[in-house]
Amino acid sequence: MKRTAVIMAGGSGERFWPMSRRTQPKQLLYLTSKDQTMIEETIARIAPIVAPEDIFIVTGEVLLPVMRSMPLGIPPENIIAEPLKRNTAPCIALAAALLAERYAEQGIPATDISMAVLAADHFISAPDLFCRTADAAFSAAEATGSLVTLGITPTRPETGYGYIETAGETRAELEAEPVVSFQEKPSADRAQEFLDAGKFLWNSGMFFWRVDAVINGIAQHLPEIGSSIDALRGALHGHTRDLPEGAPAGTREIFATMPDISIDYGLMERADNVAVVRAIFPWDDVGSWDALPRVFNADEHGNIALGESIIIDSNNCVVVNSNADQSTTVAVVGLDNIVVVTTPHGVLVCPANRAQDVKKVVQALQSKPGGEKFL
Asked: What are 277's strand-pairing partners?
């Protein structure tokens, strides 16, 4: 079985403004490591079980030249662009079509290709445990044809994640188990109920399946996308190693007919051959500035300080000074639960519990005359 990995790495740099920008979203930042960007961390994490030539990235057209210029250790032709922003289901359909065509050239049918779908913005501090979990998920998908997702054992009543309901039966470590249901992001009370029940997992958004299984699943449950996969394969036929400046030729017209829908809602919640493997690694979806205290060790007052800064009589603050030359310092005095981020083109100050609303700043700048220069 040929094992492959597809890393979804679009994004427009909204929630980590002002450090992230349109051409430098969070996956291109040294956000959770001083030595690697988040996309480099993602590649390094899966590389022990998937060869570099079998790792692919799907990104946006704006980011394509940036990604291909980076020393990521994978072939530049393995980095392709979506022609339009259409959510994760069309993105995965494009990736599945690409893999089916690329490996058909080598005489490998879709039934003999397994595919991991990974996000470029997860923080996983134990890559060896990730590899063990991923290997188990690959094996389950390869052997059964199931659509396998990774579930994270909850550590708090989180309202920002979707949940996976299991039967709650005792299983051997890394044994795949059937999914009972998927639950959308809950209210605080409902999240506490999920935590107390002990049979709900966070939905990590990482998937493992055979290429034929996901193509068939999309065709059955998302026919408005599945009906276009053959057309995508036709557009890619003989061109899977091309290096266009934008999206692959012929795919824009096909994408324009597709709905904007997630793979979770469009396929995983509807299919009856879905399984989950409980992750044995620590995980965090680094979605906004308030996630950093879960990534870095805070001081005795719960503060996180990155870059030149001074924090006095303050608690549970995130202070990030990303001015490259560190010629200025950031001082925070007498504040609690505040995020402060400085860059050469912008300064952010907000309550930590409003960190998700940073995207509203980006939206405001997009509509403000001259605001584009700050994005």
From this structure: 150
